[in-house]
Amino acid sequence: MVISFATCGLIGKTAKVAIWQPFFAILILWTAMALFKTIPNQNLLVTRVAHLFGLQLWWWVLLISSLLGGFVAAISGICGYHFRKAVLVKKATA
Amino acid sequence: MRNKLKASICIIIPILLAFGLNTKFGDLPPLLKFLNPFTGFWQNAEQVNFPKTNKIVLKGTQDKVEVAFDDRMIPHIFAQNDHDVYYAQGYITAMHRLWQMDFQTRYAAGRLSEVVGKKAIELDRYQRRMGMVYGAENSLAGMMADPKSRRMIMAYTDGINAYIHSLSKSQYPLEYKLLDFSPEDWTPLKCALLLKQMSAVLAMGSTEFYMTNILKKFGPEITANLFPDYPIKEDPIIPAGTKWNFKPLAIPQPPLLFTEMTTGTVRTKELEEGIGSNNWAVSGAKTASGYPILANDPHLNLTLPSIWYQLQLHSPGLNAYGVSLPGAPGIIIGFNDRIAWGVTNVAADVLDYYQIEFKDNSHKQYKYDHQWKNTSTRLEKIKIRGGGTEIDTVIYTHQGPVVYFQKPEKLKMADNVPIGHALRWIAHERSNELMTFYYLNRGKNYEDYRKALTHYTAPAQNFVFASADNDIAITANGKFPLKWKEQGKFILDGTNPKNDWQGWIPANQNPAVKNPERNFVSSANQSSTDQTYPYYINWEFAPYERGKRINDKLKVMTKATADSMRIMQSDSYSILAQDLLPALLAKIDLAKLNATQKEAFNLSGKWDKFFAADAIGASIFDLWTKRLFYNIWDDEFTIANIPMRYPSRDRTLALILKEPGSKWFDNINTPAKETLNDLVNEAFKYSCDSLERKYGPIGKNWAWANIKQTHVPHLANLPGFGSKTLMTGGARSTINALSESNGPSWRMVVELGKTPIGHGVYPGGQSGNPGSPFYDNMISTWADGKLYDLYLMSSANDDKAKVISHLTISK
Prior knowledge:
The structure holds two protein chains of two kinds. Chain A has four helices and no strands. By secondary structure, chain A is mainly alpha-helical. The longest helix of chain A is centred in the last third of the chain and has 36 residues, at 58-93. Chain B is α+β, with helices and mostly antiparallel strands. In chain B, α11 runs antiparallel to α12 (446-453). Chain B starts with a helix and ends with a strand. Mean pLDDT of chain B is 93; it is low at 259-272. The A-B interface holds A 1, 5, 30, 33-34, 36-38, 40-42, 44-46, 48-52, 54, 61, 64-65, 68-69, 72, 75-76, 79-80, 82-83, 86-87, 89-90 and B 3-4, 6-7, 9-11, 13-14, 17-18, 21, 31-32, 35-38, 40-49, 174, 718-721, 770-773, 775.
């Protein structure tokens, strides 16, 4: 979260990029990591966790995890971007 | 200004988001933290394929330790000395069961509010006020006083802590992430707390509050008639007629009858037959091998992770295999190369309530022996998550804590606690049970077994024993208070010193038998002895049916093998049905039954009295007898504000079979005069109707397994983390005493001989991690009534064992 805030704050080119880049970065990263963990486990645990949350299928948990991670990253990204803009504008007017 | 605002909003939003998604709200875990694949639950997904070899360095060890994990993930620990063997036991047990160990001891210590918040506060207060921590502290002093048990407990504790310190946050067991807390350091007190919790499970039952209310309502004559001090049908543990070869101590004199009693203000709960167990051993004269065979199946609440953890411990002078309790060093039930041992609960009366007469409301003084005596106070500090610390002051008399001055509103387990009374409980005594297991684990013969038992205090157990020397034995063992007859059946007057516990039954006079003529010993929680035993242990034990069935089978058994024992352990024949069903069927008025009821009647007549998974007769009989007992007793024994209990099953059976004209059959709440026949017929129709309402037309859906719904829930009842419903037979009053989620928590059969052969299973798996393939892998074998071979490895590289992974621990 801090990373996407900082990177977008430093190098984010446009608002769009500052949302979507961190979103997909985390989405892909988290999906990959989750799969890396759950496949050798034959999805034993994630199936139990799915039942815990009242879901029928395990990949719902994967989807929710990755989307939530991506969403938070995206929000951080856009906030980072606007933060920089706000600070820069302030400097320019000063 | 606008930009400043914008900039701060841009900072606040991510911070709020981070905070919101990483904080626990109510029962919801901190979502982002929990779902993050780098730190959250995904990290607990264990690989199905395990690494074959592993090496770790643990500075706390003194020498090299080798651990071989077999194909069920059971560790076989090979150490060079006692310190290392218990150190490794602690480390490995924590590796598999850390959260369970933590949770169970927090529960025992009344510290659940610390992690789940205010909702556990009544439970925490109850645990503290019953003196669980007080008792654990006393026990710990006993354990620390002996250098052997001190070394054992310290090494075990250090091993657990070595594991805890090796963990990063992402490696915490799953439940920590769900409930959002962190493991804390293990302490020796936690080992003591765990053992106290076993005492609470097995020896905290008490009916004296109910019995006192009954005495007050019905008078001594009826009370003695309906609640006799010895069952009508019995087949005691120590065979009837066994001679007592000791000179008993003088029994203390009882005071004049104490009848000024108080009554409470809560409703009673129906007493259910709770936790029991079976064990037996047959001598070589009855087996195919010519050596004894021993069997044990302790019945407890079934949970995942399982209450038991299997392992082999090997160090110089020690080579034992069996089950341990996660949180206590050593092996509790098991065998070594010479002997085997097992336990069932004695159900001795080792918990009494004393009515206390306080001088005034300050509770600073109470009357005892015509004088005012000072109380002491103990402050219980209960930390509450998100709510500061509550200080609960508990008043202690010389008997023990005064549990309640005010009844908690929403705590069912406190129903049988009378208000303003002091609790005297064996588990508050200084004790050192660990030494019993220390010596049993290393025992070689009968003498070693007897010596080991002298160290044991509570919860009292029937220790069954068999050895390669062809000795078999059983001892109802524990520290039993020396009591006058019926002392503690009712609430005691705390002002009279004659009501105190006045010494102990000498350990070598506890009920015991070695190599009896019948060539077998057995126990199933029934009465320890016949009525010639000179001491009073309790007035009521578990009903006789399981014990009777075991003894009937063992009496006629010849050329027994391990398989004969295995089949017996899953025997579901009901002696209760044998005793009761023909009499009940004879009373049914066929003309008044509808079609379903007629069909049910036919099926009941044909039923072979086995509580098999597919038996419909079993479902009908179970509900029918429950309803009948309710019909007989509820009108008299359920009265608002006067908690009471029903007479026993044994007494009810005698009433039905031998006293058909008894006044108790009349329902006092109706003007008509009901007879036994009326009640039997009503109960039968009621059972059929309610089965039909709930399960549809009579047929497959009425099968016993479908009614019983056996399953193994998660320890904290998390959905998805328990087992599915198991379609399996067995019932409370049968050898396979398996009810909804209570029953054989470990089944073991050991064939003694030159090299012992063990067999066993428990309903769970070695790992406590729901993300492990070893979380519940043994359940189906258990449900099928099968056992695994328990192989006593000779070294970590024994090639006869199916080893899947080696762990080498070096200094």
